[in-house]
Amino acid sequence: MPTLPAPSDADAQWMRAALALALKGQGAVEPNPMVGAVVVKEGRQLGAGWHERFGGPHAEVHALAAAGSEAAGADLYVTLEPCCPQGKTPPCVEAVLRAGIRRVVVALADPFPQVAGGGLDRLRQAGVEVVVGVEAAAARHVLAPYLMLVTEARPWVIAKWAMSLDGKIATAGGQSQWLTGSEARAEVHRLRGRVDGIVVGSGTALADDPLLTARPPGLRPATRVVLDRRLRLPLTSQLVRTAGATPVLVVHHGGPAERRAALTAAGCECLDLPAAEDADLVRALLAELGQRRWTNLLVEGGSAVLGSFLAAGAIDEVWAFVAPRLVGGQSAPGPVGAAGVVELAAAPALEWEAPVPIGSDWLLRGRVEVAASTVTNVSGS
């Protein structure tokens, strides 16, 4: 095969534009990937698009339609390998070939088994120049939940908590509402509105009687998930009383049959997952949710539940809202409980994003670092 020209600075610029477009589909396209595309000729953008909704046309189709006949001989920048199998929509590779695109620049090959380089091969066989790997790291960041679902068969897990500056999520007496201000709570509701599920433990459900919905509603009606081994969730709780309008999944292990029957009759789904340890329960739950094609899971607590996800190695991203308060108290709880790690070397490290001021509070966001040797190769060649 002849050596192809190296990607240019212009390639990186146009790919960053495509990645910005991809993010516009967040919350609307899952479990499909967020994808953006730009058609360029002689340094001029002719068309752009993104995957706007699940089951709708893909990004390439929107971009090519916007470019029209001018797409012939142009370059196409797309954040993920164009699909080749017939799915809910026709294969994008064939649309690219019909449009007469001369060069396709791709950030990542698609690890989805029915694609997995097949789209790139089809383009090359048709004589189209293909470049893969431009802005690959940025694309992995955007596509992380999709890549997790495809390669690990589980949803991407976001751990969220609100705490004081000295790391307390409640006072020693158990008071926690409200540590942070209204602006921070509004941001949580926006996050809730784009995930598939929201997890709390039975202790939080009993103590706070939360509703766990996005207000105002977001793009996705998240299922409320309660880890409740002994089926203690009251029938009078807000969660149960609203189960007919917004799904509730009660995860348990055994428990009284009459309690399960009552919760089921009230509209909840009860899922019995045999697991001896809390971390095993988390892993079993994530495997089940992966089968259901959930892409993003928000874990809101309490500290024992967050500790269980940590023990399971199942926290991928953290959203920590920090209030300018000092709570103190040796018995006041921190955000992540359970046994924790014994050696600092075992504590997951985070890659932090820039802190964001929200009202009088700060939002600290980070993703758990993954060793390079354990990252699935999804860049293609």
Summarize the structure.
The protein is of the alpha/beta class and 381 residues long. The chain is built from eleven helices and 15 strands. Strands 6, 7, 8, 9, 10, 11, 12, 13, 14 and 15 form a ten-stranded mixed β-sheet that branches. It has a five-stranded mixed β-sheet with strand order 2-1-3-4-5, sandwiched between helices.
Walk me through the structure:
The chain is α/β, with parallel strands linked by helices and 381 residues long. The chain is built from 11 helices and 15 strands. The chain has helices spanning 9-22, 59-67, 92-99, 118-125, 136-152, 182-192, 202-208, 238-241, 257-265, 278-291, 303-311; strands at residues 36-41, 44-50, 75-80, 103-108, 129-132, 156-164, 197-201, 223-227, 248-252, 269-272, 296-301, 317-323, 350-352, 356-358, 361-368. Strands 6, 7, 8, 9, 10, 11, 12, 13, 14 and 15 form a 10-stranded mixed sheet that branches. A 5-stranded mixed sheet has the order 2-1-3-4-5, with helices on both faces. Helix 4 (118-125) links the parallel strand 4 (103-108) and strand 5 (129-132). It starts with 8 loop residues before the first helix and ends in a 13-residue tail after the last strand. Mean pLDDT is 92; it is low at 371-381.
The separation of the N and C termini measures 12 Å
User: Tally of extended strands?
Assistant: 15
Shape: elongated
What's the helix-strand series?
HEEHEHEHEHEHEHEHEHEHEHEEEE
Low-confidence stretches: 371-381
Query: Which radius of gyration do the C-alpha atoms yield?
Result: 23 Å
